[in-house]
Amino acid sequence: MSSLPDQFHALVIGASGTIGAAFVELLAASPRCARVVGLQRQAPPHLDFADEDSVARAAQALSAGPRFHLIINAAGLLHSEQFMPEKRLADLHYAQMQATFQANTFGPALALRHFVPLLDRERAIMALLSAKVGSIGDNRLGGWYSYRASKAALNMLVKTAAIEVARSQEHSVLVALHPGTVNSNLSRPFRGEAIGRPAAVAATEMLRVLDSLTPADSGTFRSYDGATLPW
């Protein structure tokens, strides 16, 4: 991350997940990174997108320290023990939609609300992991209703927040970032072990993309290879 100041401070939300843990490991190993904080449900300061107040509490706990030059939200939900992505309209039901939007849209929205004020004023990047299947323009196969819709909504939140943040924090970059297929628990039911990249490789690629972004790129939807994706 050569575009960030030497001894920069980083924060990873969803640090217990496969991709989040890879980000934490890479940043901790960087001699230019002074500190990386990983937030998760199990360790203090606890952050759980199912608990609205926990997002505010976690941000408050970190507010007394140095501002962050890099914040990454790597938390997300595609499936659980109770459900898999819907293939048909007939599969839709509230419980799955609510759980998916809570993890992929509502929680990240609160992360924007509470953590944007913790960004460094000189140079800062906040990336929220989205998904290419959340692109409305690129949707050619259908299916995966809740996941697609939750990521499309996340993209709108990032775009809208970027417009507002640019008015007061002109050096900040907010971006929706597609990680591609990664060998993780999220992708395992969909041949992730066979077709996915190792998490360390994916995280390295995404950090390279983030390092290249300027304030003019704020509010865009990017892929792990740097390409701009259609909304």
Describe the structure.
The chain is of the alpha/beta class and 231 residues long. The protein has one domain (8-223): NAD(P)-binding Rossmann-like Domain (Rossmann fold, 3-Layer(aba) Sandwich). The chain has 6 helices and 6 strands, in the order βαβαβαβαβααβ. It has helices at residues 18-29, 52-62, 94-115, 145-168, 192-195, 199-212, and strands at residues 8-13, 33-39, 70-73, 124-129, 172-178, 220-223. It has a 6-stranded parallel beta sheet with strand order 2-1-3-4-5-6, sandwiched between helices. Strand 4, helix 4 and strand 5 (172-178) form a beta-alpha-beta unit. Helix 1 (18-29) packs across helix 6, helix 2 packs parallel to helix 3 (94-115) and helix 3 packs parallel to helix 4 (145-168). It is globular, with a radius of gyration of 17 Å. The two termini are 27 Å apart. The model has no long low-confidence stretch (mean pLDDT 95).
- The CATH architecture term is 3-Layer(aba) Sandwich
Overall outline: globular
Work out the number of β strands: 6
Domains, number: 1
